[in-house]
Amino acid sequence: MPEIKVTPLGAGQDVGRSCILVSIAGKNVMLDCGMHMGYNDDRRFPDFSYITQNGRLTDFLDCVIISHFHLDHCGALPYFSEMVGYDGPIYMSHPTKAICPILLEDYRKITVDKKGETNFFTSQMIKDCMKKVVAVHLHQTVQVDEELEIKAYYAGHVLGAAMFQIKVGCESVVYTGDYNMTPDRHLGAAWIDKCRPDLLITESTYATTIRDSKRCRERDFLKKVHETVERGGKVLIPVFALGRAQELCILLETFWERMNLKAPIYFSTGLTEKANHYYKLFITWTNQKIRKTFVQRNMFEFKHIKAFDRAFADNPGPMVVFATPGMLHAGQSLQIFRKWAGNEKNMVIMPGYCVQGTVGHKILSGQRKLEMEGRQILEVKMQVEYMSFSAHADAKGIMQLIRQAEPRNVLLVHGEAKKMEFLRQKIEQEFHVSCFMPANGETTTILTNPSIPVDISLGLLKRETAIGAAPDAKKPKLMHGTLLMKDNSFRLVSPEQALKELGLAEHQLRFTCRVHIQDPRKEHETVLRVYNHLKGILKDYSVQHLPDGSITVESILIQATAHSEDQGTKVLLVSWTYQDEELGSYLTSLLKKGLPQSTP
Amino acid sequence: MAAHLKKRVYEEFTKVVQQHEDLSTKKLRLTKPSKSAALHVDLCKATSPADALQYLLQFARKPVEVESVEGVVRILLEHYYKENDASVRLKIASLLGLLSKTAGFSPDCIVDDAINTLQNEKSHQVLAQLLDTLLVIGTKLPENPSVRMRLVEVACKHLTDSSHGVRNKCLQLIGCLGPVEKGVAKEAESQAAKDVQKIIGDHFNDQDPRVRTAAIKAMLQLHERGLKLQQAIYSQACKLLADDYEQVRSAAVQLIWVLSQLYPESIVPIPSSNEEIRLVDDAFGKICHMVSDGSWVVRVQAAKLLGSMQQVSSHFLEQTLDKKLMSDLRRKRTAHERAKELYSSGEFSSGRKWGDDAPKEEIDTGAVNLIESGACGAFVHGLEDEMYEVRIAAVEALCMLAQSSPSFAEKCLDFLVDMFNDEIEEVRLQSIHTMRKISNNITLREDQLDTVLAVLEDSSRDIREALHELLCCTNVSTKEGIHLALVELLKNLTKYPTDRESIWKCLKFLGSRHPTLVLPLVPELLSTHPFFDTPEPDMDDPAYIAVLVLIFNAAKSCPTMPALFSDHTFRHYAYLRDSLSHLVPPLRLPGRKLVSSAVSPSITPHEDPSQQFLHQSLERVYNFQHLDPRGIQELLEFTIRDLQRLGELQSELAGMADFTATYLQCQLLLIKALQEKLWNVAAPLYLKQNALASTAAKQILEETYKMEFMYSGVESRQVVIIHHMRLQAKALQLIVTARTTRGVEPLFGMCEKFLQEVDSFQRCFISELPHMQGSFVDKLLDLMPRLVTSKPSEVVKILQTTLRQSTFLHLPLPEQLHRATANIIEPTGESDNPLRFTSGLVVALDVDATLEHVQDPQGTVKVQVLYPDGQAQIIHPKPADFRNPGPGRHRLITQVYLSHTAWTEPCQIEVRLLLAYNSNRSKASTRIPKSTWSESLEALPPSENGIEGTIPFSKPVKVYIMPKPARR
């Protein structure tokens, strides 16, 4: 029985460090190559020694696929390809290929320059690594080699995020990466066709959550910002440079446009500008609205959002500032926060999750007095708001995707074990497919039942379909032919051709059967009676009375002789080849019933 | 560029003028050599299939007369059997279909031949085309059931064909022609009908998705033609919902919908349980499920159909808005629920705390159903969909369902309010309109109102106006709500002063709907103080007027309110009642005799004093015969003045008053012209003096065109009078010309033309002539035999006397008469900053105007730009620039491109709207088909009265522009 083996090196019952090995029909594919945010030691990268202890990884992996540019999905790539050593192809979407190196470089800078780590990948390594990347388009089928092919589907989540279908022969696996089933202000919803893969590997970050409509959150967010700005207050929105930041920018930009607001919006510079540039370029990966209106105006060419300068923070009057980083733990956002915290007219909106220990977490949990470095106490008078903008599919979304793709098996990754367990039960209950959730390093084996394609000669096909009822796609049809297994291929050919190809002589196989009939008359009279009887019943067949006293029905021969002992009993010898088995057996059963009483 | 653009503008302008020159062509009946013969020759000449194909293609371009169709068909068929090339046969087959469509041709004579062609055909494509032809033939013979039966049999025979195209066509044919009669000829017919359904139903499982689609479509076709589909199909159709192909699913959704409407109350079992539910509920659940389909086409289809399933039980209906939220397996309340709770606990929205939405109770893991089989959350999904088409469809469906179920309306309110923040304007607009439609079923909570009002700041005018309309008919529950609405509307007013009218109107309704809620707000709104006098507010402040409109309208049904007014409020009331009478209702104020209080609502509008006044003054005018000329003139002048003033005061009578005033004006001009001294003076002297008479004639002509084309509601009775007046003006013109020109030659032509006009007038309005006793035309027609034979000079003399003697015709007034008006809102013409642009380049000027009572504005309304050098441009706005916000109202929002050579100083150009008319497509002729003259009108050579022109019907607006010389 063929099988698909899946081993998560990361993201198995865990979030972060996504890295999943899949072997399918003799091909080995690595899905994602991420780092773990929570660790600073060796555990931050997947353990590639699992693949091979010694020897090049290239020999063991046919390809690597990166789903999107988040570091927990691509952070270990330069380490993997340059330091461990992999020269095979790496596949990712065009936007991912464009943005990924920016993030990697940023990550490297923070680790090496700020934290002073050595033995980390260098800028050159990132460049070399990116040279190995092959970019793919949406819905483009890429032949990795003769048998392995991959295809990308739209996944929402972030710009350029893709789901991948990996297919060898009839067996296929779909890996979702991170995806989003509800559209947002700049990206559409994930979509996949009914590809019925053998296995669907899906993320399950929000396995136990069903989310509220996005509109309420957006409206709340806009209302808060609007009210504060109208009051003359300043709004600080700490963000990470990519992803949600762009969504919020679009949201505010359109709102400003709609409401004709004049207060300035600033975006702290840095890698953002570069990233925005890519957002402008990859319009096809965004949502309907942006795609439709970009001819008039590219939505990412912000009219109201300008670059931030340090000096602007002291300007009087209302303003909105997006500043990095998102958890208020350092950098520009913290500086601005310090300046504005004392005024109750101002507001800070945290658009995402904050790690414990950061200023962001502290203020969100209600702390109003913060101890900053140098023992000074900062009193927070400004309003603190929390708005969750997250782009993962919730439980309903995951179920919806499964419904769309109709997989035969499901495997959950990228989530917490407890939550996965719930979703696993649900999936098995609703779809009646088996669902797996391996931990890191644990191998799951899935048996597949691939259909095997067989070539059939056109002549044979036509001949066979012509016999019997009209073809019906929903019902299997019986065909006569010879299956030839030769040179690793299967062919269905007619018997004659098979004999010819194999150089075999044809052997006749005949069945003979004797039927005793009580008939006192002469032999030839009996024959005549049998002939008439058969002629009367088998109207569609050619029944012939040969001069030598035998009857043929098609190719079936019937001869009558008197019984050697009892002259009143006639013995009918019926003989047919095995091709006529059906007719032959019918005939014997007919004759066994005896002849009708003749009415002379 | 500019030159090119200008050229284009002029081209467009000139185009109008040229349009009617070619109208004088006469219909000719040419006897051509038989078309069939020509075709035959062509086809015989063809040496190769490609040649033959070319001939056929050429042939297909020209129409064939009814008589020769059959011959052509025979030739084509003959050639068909000879032809070996499939493409030519295909073309012939399609031609056969085309020919059978010829109007007036009955194709039953070619049915047999067409069926015969099918027998030996091998090519699938040709076969499909032939079946298509048969379909055409079948549809042409609706009352020939036997032929139809035969065709259906033929189609059934070919259903086993291996090509999907052929099967497709067969199913289509069966769907269109299959017998649907029931009851009358029971036995045979209904048996066949059952067969047809079964045959089509068998192909629901065809291997080709296109055939499956065609089968479902054929079934739907049968339904449309009146066959009652069997309920048994329902289960089959349900299976098709899971098809791999979107077009199949889309069609299946439709089929399920049809069945749910046919058998709403039947009971179907729920699979995997013993329960049973109504079919319509089951279908509703299934269609709801399709709202989260993978293909957006199906989603749109499903969302649309949901709206029309009104028999669904409310239990199911309300599920569509339900989506159980959870977080880490704990039940979470939706933002909507939280908002509601916050509201009911009496607490006004406090800033949200971190973890405010923290999940509360634990959920039993077994009870959570992630994919409900039922309708759960269908609309929640639909409204959040990626494609705006789906969202719009969902909003529409919500609207329809909410209109029929008040409880559902209440529930869907939150979702609709959310849609006000959609990213696509169309969706926002649609949801505002929807909300307005269901507004009588709902009362807005304060928090909802808050969200609704937030949209008032939208920069799109359409959105704001739609919102004002919505507010006009909303129910607000608290006085805080009213206050909030007022504050937001005033904010809107300061931000967008152009919204003034719309906001006032909105407040008018808001006030009259909620008098009791406004009452406690009055002191605050008027900022009165129990002890101190407060300064009198500025009467010209639009915001203050807005507040007063709200209060006065509330006071109408709240008699205690006026007691709270201060002195100046009463004064302001009197002023506003006069100046903004459409916004301020008459009030019963203590100690004040009201002018309009005499008008009690019981008096019907016909007895309205202003209407009476109108009629009385007209009566007076029509009886002036025995007055001296001086008196007549004076009377006319006074009456015109009165009428004009009346029109200003009474907006509902404005059309009528203006119309009559214009008519009287014409008469006045005519009288004045005829009383000129010039008629008595010798020829050489009046050269100078004729100015008045000729201008009068010209003006009368203009006015008559205005009367005919600028008013909606003009009937044929009025048209006659108008034409009659025009005829008089033309007579006047003729007389004046005869007097001033020397020589007779030019007069010949003019007389001829005039007599022709009289003639055509007589033919057009023959039915009306009896009503015109003693009129100019009446007398003229009596003299007609003499006129035709006499010389021009005599004609002129006769005309002059008849014109003087003729009586003034009574103008009957129609029931409803509205004058087309236009008001340019943008540009305002107040700007002192010139619009600067480089000469030779173009500048786009935004024009925004409201049009009222304009019929077919797309065809008639033009924008005119007048430059200071006298140059004028006429611009045709695109049809898409017109919007139709209400009956009789239109809105023109367009851009006008300006260009000019460099000027040294900024200067003003004038922009105005024109109403283009064309006396050919006279309103009367299109509107009254019953009268005899409209038929005779067709026989007239159209160039005779094909006069076109434009009427300016808006105040010109001045725009300051400055084309700068281009810098080199």
From TrEMBL, chain A:
One of its GO terms (cellular component) is cytoplasm. Transmembrane segments: none annotated. One of its GO terms (molecular function) is RNA endonuclease activity. Residues 16-233 form the Metallo-beta-lactamase domain. Residues 245-363 form the Beta-Casp domain. Keywords: Cytoplasm, Hydrolase, Metal-binding, Nucleus, Zinc. InterPro entries: Beta_Casp, INTS11-like_MBL-fold, IntS11_C, MBL, Metallo-B-lactamas, RibonucZ/Hydroxyglut_hydro, RMMBL. PANTHER family: CLEAVAGE AND POLYADENYLATION SPECIFICITY FACTOR FAMILY MEMBER (PTHR11203), INTEGRATOR COMPLEX SUBUNIT 11 (PTHR11203:SF37). Belongs to the metallo-beta-lactamase superfamily. RNA-metabolizing metallo-beta-lactamase-like family. INTS11 subfamily. This is Integrator complex subunit 11. It comes from Taeniopygia guttata. The lineage of its organism: Eukaryota, Metazoa, Chordata, Craniata, Vertebrata.
TrEMBL record, chain B:
One of its GO terms (cellular component) is integrator complex. It is found in: Cytoplasm; Nucleus. Residues 611-814 form the INTS4 8 helical bundle domain. The keyword Magnesium does not apply. Residues 823-965 form the Integrator complex subunit 4/Protein SIEL C-terminal Ig-like domain. Its main location: cytoplasm. Keywords: Acetylation, Cytoplasm, Isopeptide bond, Nucleus, Repeat, Ubl conjugation. The keyword Endoplasmic reticulum does not apply. GO terms for biological process: snRNA processing. It holds the Pfam family INTS4_C. It comes from the Eukaryota. Component of the Integrator complex, composed of core subunits INTS1, INTS2, INTS3, INTS4, INTS5, INTS6, INTS7, INTS8, INTS9/RC74, INTS10, INTS11/CPSF3L, INTS12, INTS13, INTS14 and INTS15. The core complex associates with protein phosphatase 2A subunits PPP2CA and PPP2R1A, to form the Integrator-PP2A (INTAC) complex. INTS4 is part of the RNA endonuclease subcomplex, composed of INTS4, INTS9, INTS11 and inositol hexakisphosphate (InsP6). Interacts with BRAT1; interaction is required for the assembly of the RNA endonuclease subcomplex. Belongs to the Integrator subunit 4 family. This is Integrator complex subunit 4. It comes from Taeniopygia guttata (Zebra finch). The gene is INTS4.
